[in-house]
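FIELD: query
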Amino acid sequence: MLAATLATAALAATSFTIDVRDTGEIRRVGDLKPKQYLGEEGFNTGVVPNRRNAIRAYGRPDRRDENGCGNIWRRLGLRLITADFSGGPPCTDRTRIQRIEITSDEWVTERGLRIGDSLDRVRELYPELRRFTDLYGEAGPYRYVWALVLEPSQVGGPPNLIDRLSAEIRKRKVVSLTVSPYGAGD
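FIELD: result
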């Protein structure tokens, strides 16, 4: 009983705001205020986006991902995609967060977008949105993904953009939102 009460209190205290500015600056994903990398602007506020800082912001994860890492918070509708491209272990506290995937309709962007909103609502709130297939070509897994906030970058070549906030849209409804502190990896 006490554990359930504490979990409910922790959930109530959690911020569910996703604040990614038009410039590409990621101000916050709930209680996590990550620095971001690879962009042209060099936003230096926030903390290093790694597992340790995510756990500090969101509490202990309640599920493991396919790599055995505690990167899933079912109660928050949040999942981290982590990777160490230098060959280090995928589950250490220092492993970097490449993407934060959100599936709960509790979350809302600073412009008011939520999971379940229609494609028309997305277009109203993010008129500059672009389909990934228009940006990157016909990539199968990205067929339903739309970039909402892009940051100019010379890293990786054309189209010289990093998607900082994107949405997966199926049957004209938002089914997930993704924030990318590292863009193309580190």
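FIELD: remark
Residues 2-179 form one domain.
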